[in-house]
Amino acid sequence: MKIRKISILLAVSLGAIIAFSGCKKDDGAIRSNVTINDIPTITTSVDASGSQAIDLLNIGSFSGKFKIDLFFPGATPPTKVDIVVRKNASNTNLKVFKAGVTTFPTTYTITAADIATLFGTAVALGDSYDFAPDIYVGDRKFEAFPAVGAGSGAGPVAQPLYSEFARFSAICAYDQAIYQGVFNVVSDGFGDFSPGEAVTITKISNTSFSFIDPYVTGSLPIIVNVNTLNNQLSITKQKIGNAFVWNLGYTNPNMAVAASASSFVAPCSKTITLSITYTVDQGSFGAYTLILKKP
Questions:
Q1: CB of 32 within 8 A of CB of 24?
Q2: How far apart are the first and last CA of the chain?
Q3: CA distance 33 to 21
Q4: Helix or strand holding residue 155 (H, E)
Q5: Per-residue pLDDT tens over the stretch 58-71
Q6: Rounded to the nearest 5°, which phi and psi values hold at 119?
Q7: What domains sit in the chain, N to C, each tagged with a CATH number?
Q8: Selection from 183, 246, 182 nearest residue 214 by Cα
Q9: pLDDT tens-digit profile of 8-48?
């Protein structure tokens, strides 16, 4: 059995590092030869009124919508933006979707045929397409997906309700008939389940199922919620039993899964992938990935 460590509090003491260097007459808080631009923050989000993913089983019905807007109302807008689209998270595989946009907010609609025309190839299972703006301030261009570095700073990304890009992924639509019955463990980063071990999936509703972790005393059903629009999974933090059987001192174990691209069902391959955060009364173990597959 692997050794698991609980993270309760990490205190780091940093010493101050002072660097001395030769001074020049233009030294200061901002050197005179440095150009500073005020770059407006633009949020790009998927519109809930359109398709949330590209269903390959009904690809002609895909009509994705996304909106670009100034994150701070009343802020000075950029000179213009070019809306670009990145394929499969590769910053070297970019196309321009709309150039010279100056109106904010603006909502756009995209189809699978539009995407295929842009990239010169049909949409395939597992593809993802991220839409975001290249921002122009005067004659300077700030790229959404630069070849080196990040397109958005840590400040905007950390803001509530800010969205760096609108992503549409190619999926097979959720099929509730698949997600019930016996699945086998492909891998378990936490180490409770062993590869090949059988796990029974029980249908709860058309958008949820459950399973049990037998490695806790007093096991309780773990309810997994499915967003059928994009196949992402989530688990509202819930108690899964009284204690882990491998250490009865760790009491009231809980599981939680945040809705994100890290946790999903893939109906074409009949798999379940869950990035699970494990906690107990004594602290948190962190997040570990569990992958299940139907034989």
A1: no
A2: 26
A3: 18
A4: helix 154-157
A5: 899 999 999 999 99
A6: -100, -5
A7: 42-171 (2.60.40), 181-293 (no CATH)
A8: 246
A9: 544 344 444 444 344 444 444 444 444 445 788 999 999 99
